[in-house]
Amino acid sequence: MASRKKPPSKTRPHKRPSTASTATQAAPAKSAPGMTPAGGGLGNIRDSIDAIDARIHGLLNERARFAQLVGISKSSSGKAVDFYRPEREAEVLRMALKRNQGPLRDEEIARLFREIMSACLAQQEPLKVAFLGPEGTFTQAAVLKHFGSSVRALPLPAIDEVFHEVEGGIADFGVVPIENSSEGTVNHTLDMFLSSALKICGEVELRINHYLMGKMSGTDPVKRVCAHAQALAQCRGWLDEQLPDAERVAVSSNAEGARRARDERGTAAIASQAAAEIYGLNLLAHEIEDRQDNTTRFLVVGRKLFSASGVDRTTLLVSGTHTDDSGALFRLLEPLAEHRVNMTRIESRPSRKRKWDYVFFIDIEGHVSDPPVAKALAALEERASLFKVLGSYPRAVL
Q1: Tens-digit pLDDT profile for residues 271-282
Q2: Residue 36 has pLDDT above 50, yes or no
Q3: Which residues contact 110 (CB under 8 A, 6 or more apart)?
Q4: CATH dotted code for 126-208+295-299
Q5: Is the Cα dihedral 151, 152, 157, 163 positive or negative?
Q6: C-alpha to C-alpha distance for 84 and 60, rounded to whole angstroms
Q7: Statement: residue 24 has pLDDT above 70
Q8: pLDDT at 29 (0 to 100)
Q9: pLDDT tens per residue across span 251-298
Q10: pLDDT of amino acid 82
Q11: Whether 323 contacts 383, CB under 8 Å
Q12: pLDDT at 6 over 80
């Protein structure tokens, strides 16, 4: 909803503000929010924009100084990871979206506030975030969406290496894919939690748009298409219709497919628009995914649990003594129903202890500190042979 406009001011036109960066120094140049410049000419509009920019600049510096105080009060080491609080950042984003009345879209507001928080946090030392690389992957895009640009992103070739870098303290956090709305679960990520002590600290939902790209100028010369197996599956219908004779080659990542498309004659790739820019490829077809709502969920992994944000999700790893007994799964899940805790997802994986024995990965709504959740989990733990809280974290904001 657009803000109500006030009648044009009858006072003298605004002068161009000074270049001072603080809110106090910029005060003489400020104009009332929503005010139409006197005369309505282009010059007056630009003067008003300059005045607003000066106020924004002053407020940003003021916010950064307060962020420094938060860091000093919480940590003497000066390391960003010591006072990074995902629950607080989620709360800030939700408040920003709640008060947004346009004309900027919610996605733009969230991105702007994410970058502000990222820059303020990085004053001490940037966070080090490992991700499934190389550069140009959707996982890198998830890192930027969740942490902002003021982090040190560390691309790694495999999901297990992301876990190991965080476990060893080389990276502060890691970002890995967990499921796609079209093709389901990334089992390698689930299996890492069977042996890893890392915790889930957050989640990112990223709308996935796939592009066909190559060095050629059209699709006729395409002999093969290289991409990650998930991307090939997400574009199966389009490929069947548009490139039925092209060989489909599964590679370790979409970025690796883009590299091959750059270096091999007749090879095209399916990847992100960013990958086309990084590897110097032409976009041959846009948004070729079969489903318009194609979305991938990513997990942020770290070394500790965080407090509740108010809108949270908890992920559990559980199993029973004999998972092949009738009613075994029902007995494990019954406490959730009794305490009215909503289960949103369940996946089974081999326990790797003996054949036909399984563990269950369960997502529920709420935080472990919420009384109904705490009571349900206490009852569930009594019935389980394996019980582990993998994480209790803010649900994805947008």
Answers
A1: 999 999 999 999
A2: yes
A3: 93, 96, 97, 397, 398
A4: 3.40.190.10
A5: negative
A6: 19
A7: no
A8: 42
A9: 988 999 999 999 999 999 999 999 999 999 999 999 999 999 999 999
A10: 75
A11: no
A12: no
The domain defined by 36-118 folds into: Chorismate Mutase Domain, subunit A (1.20.59)
The predicted pLDDT at position 309 comes to 96
Domain boundaries along the sequence of the chain: 36-118, 126-208+295-299, 211-285, 306-394
Give the CATH number of domain 306-394; options: 3.30.70.260, 3.30.420.40, 3.40.50.1820, 1.10.1740.10.
3.30.70.260
Q: Are 193 and 176 in contact (CB under 8 A)?
A: no
Cβ proximity of 306 and 201 under 8 Å? yes
* CATH 3.20.20.370 corresponds to the domain 211-285: no
Closest among 318, 324, 345 to 179, alpha carbons compared: 345
pTM of the model: 0.83
CA gap 394, 202 in Å, rounded: 6
